[in-house]
Amino acid sequence: MKSIIQIKNFNFFYGESQALHDVTLDFNENQISALIGPSGCGKTTLLRCINRMNDLIDDTRSEGNITIHEKNIYLAEVDPVEVRRKVGMVFQKPNPFPKTIWDNIVWGAKINGYTGNLEELVESTLTRTALWDEVKDKLHTNALFLSGGQQQRLCIARAIAIKPDVILMDEPTSALDPVATARIESLITELKKRYSIVIVTHNMQQAGRISDCTSFLLNGVVVEHGRTKEIFLNPKEKKTEEYISGEFG
Amino acid sequence: MERITSHSSKHSEDINKALQWQPKPLRTRKRNETIMRTLMLIALYCTISFLFILAGSIINNAFGYVLFTYEIHPTEFSQGGEINELSHAKKIAILKENLRERVYITLDRKKPMEKRSSQDLSAIIFSRVLKASVLEAYSLFESLFQRGQLIENALTYPNADLIFRSWISPRFIRGEQSTNPLESGIWGAITGSVGVILVTILFSFPLGIGTAVYLCEYMPRSRWKNLLQINIYNLSGVPSIIYGLLGLVVFVRVFLPITSGQLFGFTSGAATDSGRTILSAGLTLTLLILPVIVINTQEAILSVPTYIKQASYGLGATKWQTVWHHIIPYCIGRILTGTILSVSRAIGETAPLVVVGASTFLTIVPNSIFSKYTTLPIQIYQWSARPQQEFQNLAAGAILVLLTIMLTLNFIAIMYRKRVQKKLARL
Ligand SMILES: Nc1ncnc2c1ncn2[C@@H]1O[C@H](COP(=O)(O)OP(=O)(O)OP(=O)(O)O)[C@@H](O)[C@H]1O
Ligand SMILES: [Mg+2]
């Protein structure tokens, strides 16, 4: 297994308060890595550090390195815009642009210099996200008219249209019903053939079902990291065991 | 142990007591609502009636009977009929006969007599040949309800006519300013106003929106930024006359070579060698409305939900791509609404333009941004300061024109806003 993202001794601060403490993690290529942990433990923060979205928040500071494909993305000469093109992101709440379905997919690719056939791009991304059959007749209607689950799949389609290497997903199914959740889960499993995926989830079954490896965070500290099966079947740390069995969190 | 138990049971009793409150009867709450609703309704009608009073008083002055007296009575030319009913050729003949040759040629050169409208010719005969002058002018109200009395009054003057006159007419709109209220027009003021406002729009839109976008999206939080923000808020409250003084120093004096057009070789024709030009006036009004536009645009930008920005940045967009494709389209409606309101305010501004030197009497129509100018509000102010009723009538006519221009500009802006919104939403 080839490692694609390496986080080394990473600290992150919102103003004076430290949200991540000395995080060291490895994520592998073409795998699904799950981040679990109680609310407020820093999962979103860590995810947003991987594509430097935290740069957009005033008064934040980080220490340490994150390397993707052996390139440190926290070097001064690295442009966060370039990082974000290679590391796509799907947010907790579906957030399509208030524009047409077509524009939602095409826009990201266009601004990144895509010059190929737009129709093919739209069709292939929507097919890959299992949305094509549902929306092929209404590509030019506003994306906000789609259902929550469809919107979330559109957001995933939009993210893969910019040809990322890594896709970060922040609780992508937390706002969805079981049927839509199942569809997105099977979609994610399908996507890992082509992309490396880091997913935050509060749903232990989900983490168990789809992920290859799992990291458990608590108060900004990585408590345990390993193959999902091992973490779920015989966790080394007591805290992990308690959390997974639902005793706190 | 016992004490604790008793204490906690006492505590839960307290809580239960708190939950045994009686809701207020709906009747009393409804009564309060009725009172408030009535008050708001009264407020609404007050506002509307003020607006009606305003509109009424303007219209009241713009139309009405005028009592003319003549040096030569019209019947001498028209054989008992009306001057208006004479043929075109006959009118020209009368003018040729009775005007001094120099005057006739000047008028002819301005616009050939044959090409002038019949009403135009009548008006010239009226003022130049018959030498009509206004004895008294009446409001629309007086004209409608005290007609008998006005006619009786007219009979006491020899050689006088009572004629119903609309003070706003094509001649009034297209005419030049004149000391004779019967001939005076506002074309120069209209051109001046439109020119000044176009300059204002041209400068204030890009400057205001650019400043706001920079402050909101690019500038990191700092003490310097706070200071800037506070100052912009303060500037929006500075009285307009002070902007006039600033404009006088900066644009009329310091930037004289630019604002007078000397730098670009504009020195002939209606151009002046002073900085009292349309350009200076437009720039002064730009300063005046800039803070309001910046504040309003900033508020519009802040209303854009963060999820849109995050989505955009998450796709690898640069700041400018995010601003241009998502932030501005999302709030362009709000931006334009605020900007339109400030421009409307600028159209009506008088004080700062008096300070930066709008002309009070100007018979030439401005032909470039380096021309001398006057504007409608200035013209209205001038006329309404005169004691004679006929100048009040002229002012009322000019006010109607000003309001029409304002409403037209607003209407165009609203239509444009709708189109832009639709177009940008598709990008
Ligand atoms: N923009 C911010 N400014 C300041 N503090 C923040 C900000 N965002 C998050 N935090 C703090 O950082 C800590 C970690 O937050 P984070 O959002 O990463 O938690 P999380 O694990 O994603 O929680 P959840 O599961 O509820 O989404 C929290 O204590 C939170 O209060
Ligand atoms: Mg979170």
Question: How is this fold's topology laid out?
Answer:
The complex is a heterodimer of chains A (249) and B (427).
Chain A: E1 3-14, E2 17-28, E3 32-36, H1 43-50, E4 60-68, E5 71-72, H2 80-86, E6 87-90, H3 101-111, H4 118-128, H5 132-135, H6 148-161, E7 166-170, H7 178-191, E8 196-200, H8 204-210, E9 213-218, E10 221-227, H9 228-233, H10 238-244
Parallel strand pairs in A: 3-8, 3-9, 6-7, 7-8
Antiparallel strand pairs in A: 1-2, 1-4, 4-5, 9-10
Helix pairs in contact in A: 3-6, 4-6
Chain B: H1 2-18, H2 26-62, E1 63-69, H3 75-78, H4 88-98, H5 101-110, H6 118-129, E2 133-137, H7 140-145, H8 147-155, E3 160-166, H9 170-174, H10 187-218, H11 223-235, H12 240-254, H13 256-259, H14 278-302, H15 306-314, H16 319-347, H17 351-355, H18 376-384, H19 389-426
Antiparallel strand pairs in B: 1-2, 1-3
Helix pairs in contact in B: 2-19, 4-6, 10-14, 10-16, 10-18, 12-14, 14-16, 15-16, 16-19, 18-19
The structure holds adenosine-5'-triphosphate and magnesium ion (MG).
Helix content of chain B: 55-70%
What proportion of the residues of chain B form beta strands (DSSP E)?
A: under 5%
Bound molecules: adenosine-5'-triphosphate, magnesium ion
Ends of chain B: how far apart? Answer: 72 Å
CATH architecture assignment of chain A = 3-Layer(aba) Sandwich
Strand order of the largest sheet of chain A: 6-7-8-3-9-10
Shape of chain B: extended
The major pleated sheet of chain A works out as: 6 strands, mixed
Q: What is the second-level CATH architecture of the largest domain in chain B? A: Orthogonal Bundle
Oligomeric description of these chains: heterodimer
Task: Give me the CATH fold name of the largest domain in chain B.
Answer: MetI-like fold
The main sheet of chain B orders its strands as 2-1-3
Number of strands of chain A: 10
Radius of gyration of chain A: 18 Å
CATH class of the largest domain in chain B: Mainly Alpha
Number of strands of chain B: 3
CATH topology (fold) name of chain A: Rossmann fold
Strand content of chain A: 25-35%
